[in-house]
Amino acid sequence: MDRFEAMRTFAKVVETGSFTKAAQALHISRTRATHLVQQLEAHLRVSLLNRTTRKVSLTSAGALYVERVQQLLTDLDNTERDLAHVLALPAGRLRVDVPSSLASRVLVPALPSFYQRYPDIQLDMGVGDKAVDLLDESVDCVVRGGPIQDQALVARRVGSLRLAIYAAPAYLKRCGTPVHPTELDSSQHSVVGYLWEHQNKPFPYALRRHKESVVVRGCSGLAVNDGNAYLAAGEAGLGLVCLPDYLANAAVQENRLVALFADWSMDPMPLHVAFHRNKHTNVRLRAFIEWVGELLAPLS
C-alpha cells in the first residue's frame, strides 16, 4: 500500500462525501479509491468511514484521523511550495574564481543582469589566472579556458572563444609583417608566451588553412600568466600574441593591435566552469553556470 496515496484518497472522500467524486478528482478509478481506503483501515485496524448506499460519513476514529491527515497534507503541500520557491530564487553566498581578463571585460560589466535575476545571491569573485585549490581556498567553482586536468573536478563547458594572432603596429613596423605562420618560428619574430596554469609553460599555436596545417612555437623573450598582462605585452610591441576576439576587439578598433593571417583559422578555446562533485546540488552554482553560459554564447 502507498500510505501517502491512501491518506490523500481518504481525505478527498471526506471532502467530497463520495468515493466516486474523490476518484474523479484524483484521476483514479472508483475501485482504486475504495481499495486504498480499505487498505488504510486495515493498516490502522480501525474503521474510518460509515458507508451506506447513499453517502459516507466519518466514524469517531475517522473524525480524529482526518483532522491529522488534512494537517499533514497541508504541511506537505506548503513544504513543496516553499522548496520550489527556494529553488526558483537561489540565495546565499557563492564563491567563484575567474580569469582576470574575462572578469574585467565580460563578467563584471554584466553583473547587473545577474543580480536582477538572482538578487539574493552574494557573489564573492576571486580574479586571477593562477591555479586555485577549490578545497583549500573554499571556492565553489572556477571559470577556466582550455582543458580541465584535475580528475576530481566536474567540468561544465559554458562556451568557447575564437582565437587569432595579433601584433602592435609598432612591432610590425620594427620587425615586418609576417605573411605565413612559419615565419613566427624564425629569429626575426618574437611571440609572447602565455603560461597555462596546468603546465606552467606556453603552448604551441596550431593554425590551419584548407588542408595546410602549421604548429607555431615561436621565440619568446617574455611569458606571463595573466590575460590582461598578456594583452598589454602585445600592445606594447613586445611580440605577437594569440588572443580571443573579446579581448582583442577594442584594441583592434583603436589601432593598438592588428590581426594577422586572416585566411588562417585556429581551434576555439573551450571555457569551463569546474567544481567538486559534492557541489552538484548547489542551486546557487547551477544558477551561476546557467547565467555564464548565456553570457558567453555570443562569444562562441
From TrEMBL:
Record bears the keyword Nucleotide-binding: no
> Which SUPFAM superfamilies has this protein been placed in?
Periplasmic binding protein-like II, Winged helix' DNA-binding domain
Q: Which InterPro entries match?
A: LysR-type_TF_proteobact-type, LysR_HTH_N, LysR_subst-bd, WH-like_DNA-bd_sf, WH_DNA-bd_sf
Protein's UniProt name = LysR family transcriptional regulator
Any Pfam family hit: HTH_1
Superkingdom of origin: Bacteria
Is Secreted found in the keyword set? Answer: no
Q: Which family does it belong to?
A: Belongs to the LysR transcriptional regulatory family.
Instruction: Could you list this entry's UniProt keywords, alphabetically sorted.
Output: DNA-binding, Transcription, Transcription regulation
Residue ranges of the HTH lysR-type domain?
Answer: 1-59
